[in-house]
Amino acid sequence: MPSLNLKRTSKARNYAIGIGLLLVVVFLWTFSNFLTQDLFEGGYDKPFLVTYLNTTAFAFYLFPFVIRKYWASYRKQDSISTGTYQPLRQDLSSTSEFTIDDVPIETRDTPLTPRETARLAFYFMFLWFIANWTLNAALGYTSVASATILSSTSGFFTLALGRLFRVETLSGGKIGAVLTSFTGVILVSLSDSARDHPVNPASVVAMNSRPIFGDFLALLSAIFYALYVIFLKVQIQEESRIDMQLFFGFVGLFNVFCCWPLGFILHWTGLENFELPSGEKVIAAIVINMFITLSSDFLYVLSMLKTSPLVVTVGLSLTIPLAVVGDFFLGKPTKGQVLFGALLVLIAFSIIGIENSKVKNEQDREEEAGVSGQHHQARLGGDLS
């Protein structure tokens, strides 16, 4: 039983670390939202280019991997040239009879190879880019309230897809928590829509002409957010199986080479004219956003692997109460409706945490019962012999 207690303690510690990382992400994304809002309201309304630059920042994660590979190769060559003894070992990954890449990702617990990591990053990149780009683009065609409400439905899709792929358990508490969080988001968004926000005149024309298209983009963003967190949880399961820096490095690299044609299509169709950022304020906002994306999305995926897709999806709604605090310090008035909506979001997040604790306790009891049964059968076998 000591090993089971140790495993339970390790799971609890990982879960607590995941919650802590999620709170850091909430803070970073809230700060990024204020920067992006100020950027768009200032006239630089370029959702595709902003998303493209933010995703490109992930490529910086490849530098440590390249340096490690170069250093390892240098040390190997140095050992050979100096005649240092090298122990004879069999490398299964290079034999002709068997290669580790032949084993499906889903059927083994060994760490992912660089090739598997690159393949996973390639698929993830499209899901991640579409989720972020559609949400940014939605703000140019519909109201902030509509975009926020529809994008917050990702909790419903995450719960449904998580149940379908057996990475989430369905319970009345979780359904109630998602509904509570959604209600809180609606209250805050409706209050926000009643304010007077300065916006880009070009966005006003688009907003008045195609609000249904904007609503569709926001809903599409919610679906793809749910898809990519479930996709990663199903494919990776535990964070110990993947080099997260290498993974995001490949995401940034694939983004650089695969997504730029979309920019030409948008420019040619007139949906988003290409314009390089100019002015110290705009450039500073974009650079800061790139660094926030570089760190926060890394922590976000790590948090999801340590907790669950539903926890991080609902947990990101915590940006609402944190934004309320930010508005307070910026001298913006806060209505009681907003405070009540933020409170509902906090309550929903707490319910999800309690429900997950119940599920983990039940799983631990089932595991202990299974081990006890095995020990009992082993003792009976010994007595019979």
Molecular structure report:
The chain is mainly alpha-helical and 385 residues long. The protein has one domain. Helices cover 76% and strands 0% of the residues. It has 15 helices and no strands. Helix 1 runs antiparallel to helix 12 and helix 3 crosses helix 10. It is globular. The two termini are 25 Å apart. About 10% of the residues have low confidence. It is a multi-pass membrane protein. This is EamA domain-containing protein. Keywords: Membrane, Transmembrane, Transmembrane helix.
Layout of helices and strands, plus pairs?
Blueprint: H1 2-41, H2 47-56, H3 62-82, H4 114-138, H5 144-151, H6 154-164, H7 172-193, H8 201-209, H9 211-236, H10 244-258, H11 260-269, H12 280-306, H13 309-315, H14 319-329, H15 336-384
Helix pairs in contact: 1-12, 1-14, 2-4, 2-12, 3-10, 4-9, 4-10, 5-7, 5-9, 6-9, 6-13, 7-15, 12-13, 13-15
